[in-house]
Structures are given as structure tokens and as C-alpha cells.
Write a structure and sequence with these properties.
Strands 2-8-7-6-5-3-4 form a seven-stranded mixed sheet, with helices on both faces. Strands 10-14-13 form a three-stranded antiparallel sheet. It has helices at residues 10-14, 22-32, 54-64, 74-77, 80-92, 107-121, 135-147, 164-171, 191-203, 226-239, 263-270, 274-277, 308-320, 326-336, 346-372, 396-405, 409-421, 451-473; strands at 38-39, 130-133, 153-159, 175-180, 207-214, 242-246, 280-285, 299-304, 377-378, 387-388, 391-392, 423-424, 426-427, 440-443. By secondary structure, the chain is α/β, with parallel strands linked by helices. Helix 3 packs antiparallel against helix 14 (326-336) and helix 6 packs parallel to helix 14. It folds into two domains: 5-36 and 353-472, Aspartate Aminotransferase, domain 1 (Alpha-Beta Complex); 91-336, Aspartate Aminotransferase, domain 2 (3-Layer(aba) Sandwich). Helices cover 45% and strands 12% of the residues. Bound molecules: ligand DCS. Ligand DCS binds at residues 19, 42-44, 135-137, 162, 164, 214, 218, 246, 248, 285, 287, 294, 299. GO terms for molecular function: alanine-glyoxylate transaminase activity; glycine:2-oxoglutarate aminotransferase activity; L-alanine:2-oxoglutarate aminotransferase activity; pyridoxal phosphate binding. This is Aminotransferase class I/classII large domain-containing protein. Pathway: Amino-acid degradation; L-alanine degradation via transaminase pathway; pyruvate from L-alanine: step 1/1; Photosynthesis; C4 acid pathway.
């Protein structure tokens, strides 16, 4: 039978991914018609003008074109430490970047990742339990694939969440068990809510097997405290849940009260029995932080407290795809072992990375302040990650108009915003919402110098929108 829409895998049809959904498609159409679009729907820093860090690109360029290493002029174009590093990475491969690696990634790079984790957390890390992946996404998919056996297997996922989780769970035919983050508590996580979510899922015959945390949060931007992480780990221990710690934004921190602390470190600090029993998978990427190398597709995951036979099976699953991208593995190696003080490239690397992070910190503030100055909009401060997630309090007139247009209210608002200003956002419903509450997500990535103008144009649109729809009914819900 031919593959028709009707005969597609139902799980594929059910699966939704709003980050590239209706808003994105309409924005692409408008762009083709010649309208200037500000794409803030995807956390894709280089697409919004962020320059690549010089050192890693020099190293990977040399790895891609190894004949340059034999050119007598190579030392005039590339610094000696980049040349040495390229030779080092090529020596770890079995035939350069054109050869498959082991399906877990190059052993030498996995060792560098393990050393990074050990330096970061102060606890040993075993390269045999680290798998390199094509971006964190592929790692998340591999692990969920191993966990989900059918629709009665549930995964606890924060709401709002990044739709990689909801989409993959749908695709694999599992059940998403939501737990709600508390917006009025700066998107904090209340363990009592978790208990309720699990109890409710169990009463429906669902066996809850794993829990996802995103720290720092996407789309919510909060940084979890050490105490909160401890509670979560204790909860996973008592409920026998695998914790999936999505820590892809660990370099993106914009406040000083709560620096990033990894789930692995907190778990190890808790000591026995937790440190020996809680099963944890931690994910990281080269796509975020001050690297923003989304197109390179580099990531890793580290497994803690998994029996060797399970690790073997996950290895088998990874082997079906033969090998993660080898150039991406080198980016990962470079990210976890960047130039050190005293290296020729250190000053430039430190200057570039500091410049990006400081600008992101300023942009986080400009955005939050901008949103909070708008009528019927409230926004928690972006403590970390790359997004702002303002709540939009839509008046009844707007809800009515959205209904007439056959749109979900936040989609209606975001489409109007796009048409009026060219700002392409993602409606909050794409990340999950409480009933009757509306948000949008925007990245904090537009160029800093363009930020005031973008926020002015947002404010102008929003305030006019609110006035129009409040007046259309003569009253406001607020
Ligand atoms: N986890 C989270 C929480 C993410 O936000 C993303 C990407 C990923 C994993 C996957 O990243 P990589 O596969 O590139 O490593 N975030 C998307 C987003 O919300 N906007 O842009 C991409």
C-alpha cells in the first residue's frame, strides 16, 4: 500500500513541534514576500549574527583540510596552538573527519568530556559512560527510545517545556505526564506537585518511569537551586525514576545568586544511598552557551548508575546510526577543553566568550524590562538559557476575535504581532500552558543594538492591540 496521509504512523501525525510550526511557516512566507523578519523563534545564535569563536573554527578548519598542515605557510595563517590541537584531534580519529568513529564517539574526546565533568563537579567521571551525539536532541531521543515500551509508560515533563520532549514521547507512543512549574514563584518546581502528578498518572494505569528537568529552563529561563535539585533527586530515588537532566544551557547564566550546579554534582554530594542508586542521564551540547554552534550538531550524554547490560544495549541502539558527526565531536572536545591561560589563543578566546556572555546578560535584562513595561504583559526575569517567556493577559475581546478566526488565542496574538512588526515568536501553547493562561516565547538573541527598536515596536503593537480589544468589549478581564 502506498504511503498516504491516512496510512501514516499515527504517532507521527500526533507529534507537534511548535518551534517550527504555524508561526515559523507564516514568517518564512512573509520573508519570501520581502518583509523584514526578526526570527526569534529558535535559539539559533549564529542565524542572528553571533560570530563564531575563532579558535575552534581554526582547529576544525585544519582538521577538515589536513593538507594545510603540510603547507609551509600554515604558521602564517593559524596560531601554533590551533595547529597542535588539529594534529591532536586528527590523531584521535581513524582516518580523519571522513571516517566513521565508534558509535559512542571518539574515545579520546569522550575522555576529554569526562575530565571536564570531573573538573566541573569534583567527582570522577567514566568515559565509558559518556556517549557523543549529533546535538543533545539525538541523545534525548535515544534514551527515551530505551525507556518507553508503550503507552502505559509515562515520562514526567515540566509544563511549560521544550517540545523535543512532548514530540519524542508522542513519536515513541509513550505518555507525557505533566508537572506544572509555578510562574508566580519564578517558575519554581514544587515537589508536592510532582507527587500529585505521579499519583494521578498511576491512578490511570500509567507506570511513571522517568522525569525530565531542564536547567536552566527552556522556555522559562529559571535556574534551579541546589536545594530544589536535592528534593528532585530524593523524589526520583523514592519513586525509582530515571532523571533526565537537560543541562544544555549550563553556560547561559545571567544572575549571580544561583550559579549553575549540575544534577550529577548534587547527586554525588548527597552520598549513599542516593549517589549509588539514582539513575541519571545528563545532556549537553555545543549549540548553546557562548558557542551557539547549532549547525555543527555536537552533543553528549553521561549516564550514572546504569547497569553495564543497559549501557551495552544503549550502545547497540547508538550503533544503528554508525557514528555521530566527527567534526561535531571535535567541537565538543574543544568546548570541554578550551584554550588555557598561557596558551597563544587564550586571550582572544576569553575576550570573545566574555563579550558574548556579557551581551546576553544585558539583552536578558533589556527584554524583561521591555516586556514588563507593556500593557497586560508580565514577565519573569530570564535567569538563564536564551529565552524570554512573558505572560500576555488577553482581554475577552481578543479571545472572542481569536475564536472567530479559528485560532488558539496566543497563536492569534503572535500572528498579529508577526504581521504588524515582523517579530516571529512561538505561542506559549507550543510549550504547554495552564488552562486560560497565555504566553509567547522569544529568544534574547537579536543583536544588542537592535534590541531597543525591537522592544519599542513590540510595545507599540501590544499596547494598541490591548486598547483595541479592551474597547471592543468595553471592559478588561484585568
Ligand atoms: N534541550 C533543550 C532544552 C533545548 O532548548 C534544545 C534546543 C535542545 C535540547 C537540543 O539542542 P541540540 O540538539 O542543538 O543540542 N533548543 C531549541 C529551541 O528551543 N530553540 O532552538 C532550538
Amino acid at each position: 500500500m502506498a504511503l498516504e496521509y491516512e496510512s501514516l504512523n499515527e504517532n507521527v501525525k500526533k507529534c507537534q513541534y511548535a518551534v517550527r510550526g504555524e508561526l515559523y511557516l507564516r514568517a518564512s512566507e512573509l520573508q519570501k514576500e520581502g518583509k523584514k523578519i526578526i526570527f526569534t523563534n529558535v535559539g539559533n545564535p549564529h542565524a542572528l549574527g553571533q560570530k563564531p569563536l575563532t579558535f575552534p573554527r581554526q582547529v576544525v578548519a585544519l582538521c577538515q583540510a589536513p593538507f594545510l598542515l603540510h603547507d609551509p605557510n600554515v604558521g602564517m595563517i593559524f596560531p601554533a596552538d590551533a595547529i597542535a590541537r588539529a594534529k591532536h584531534y586528527l590523531s584521535l580519529t581513524s582516518g580523519g573527519l571522513g571516517a566513521y568513529s565508534d558509535s559512542r564517539g571518539l574515545p579520546g574526546v569522550r575522555k576529554e568530556v569526562a575530565e571536564f565533568i570531573q573538573r566541573r563537579d569534583g567527582y570522577p567521571s567514566d568515559p565509558e559512560l559518556i556517549f557523543l551525539t549529533d546535538g543533545a536532541s539525538k541523545g534525548v531521543m535515544q534514551i527515551l527510545n530505551c525507556v518507553i515500551r508503550g503507552e502505559r509508560d509515562g515520562i514526567l515533563v515540566p509544563v511549560p517545556q521544550y517540545p523535543l520532549y512532548s514530540a519524542t514521547i508522542s513519536l515513541l507512543g509513550g505518555s507525557l505526564v505533566p508537572y506544572y512549574l509555578d510562574e508566580s514563584e519564578n517558575w519554581g518546581l514544587d515537589v508536592n506537585n510532582l507527587r500529585q502528578s505521579v499519583a494521578q498518572a498511576r491512578s490511570q494505569g500509567i507506570s511513571v518511569r522517568a522525569m525530565v528537568i531542564i536547567n536552566p529552563g527552556n522556555p522559562t529561563g529559571q535556574c534551579l537551586s541546589e536545594a530544589n535539585l536535592r528534593e528532585i533527586l530524593r523524589f526520583c530515588h523514592s519513586e525509582k525514576l530515571v532523571l533526565l537532566g537537560d543541562e544544555v544551557y549550563q553556560q547561559n547564566i545571567y544572575q549571580d545568586e544561583r550559579p549553575f550546579i549540575s544534577s550529577k554534582k548534587v547527586l554525588m554530594d548527597m552520598g549513599s544511598p542516593f549517589s549509588k542508586e539514582v539513575q541519571l542521564v545528563s545532556f549537553h551540547t555545543v549549540s548553546k552557551g557562548y558557542w551557539g554552534e547549532c549547525g555543527q550538531r555536537g552533543g553528549y550524554f553521561e549516564m550514572t548508575n546504569f547497569p553495564p547490560r543497559v549501557v551495552e544495549e544503549i550502545y547497540k541502539v547508538a550503533s544503528i546510526a554508525l557514528s555521530p558527526n566527527v567534526s561535531a565531536q571535535i567541537f565538543m572536545g574543544l568546548m570541554v577543553s578550551p584554550p588555557k591561560p598561557g596558551d597563544i589563543s587564550y586571550d582572544q578566546f576569553a575576550r570573545e566568550s566574555k563579550g558574548i556572555l556579557e551581551s546576553l546578560r544585558r539583552r536578558a535584562k533589556i527584554m524583561t524590562d521591555g516586556f514588563n513595561s507593556c500593557k497586560n504583559v508580565v514577565c519573569n526575569f530570564t535567569e538563564g538559557a536564551m529565552y524570554s517567556f512573558p505572560q500576555i493577559k488577553l482581554p475577552p475581546g481578543a479571545l472572542q476575535a481569536a475564536k472567530q478566526a479559528g485560532k488558539v488565542p496566543d497563536v492569534f496574538y503572535c500572528l498579529k504581532l508577526l504581521e504588524a512588526t515582523g517579530i516571529s515568536t512561538v505561542p506559549g501553547s507550543g510549550f504547554g500552558q495552564k488552562e486560560g493562561v497565555f504566553h509567547l516565547r522569544t529568544t534574547i538573541l537579536p543583536a544588542e543594538e537592535e534590541m531597543p527598536e525591537i522592544m519599542d515596536s513590540f510595545k507599540k503593537f501590544n499596547d494598541e492591540f490591548m486598547t483595541q480589544y479592551e474597547n471592543s468589549f468595553g471592559y478588561s478581564r484585568m
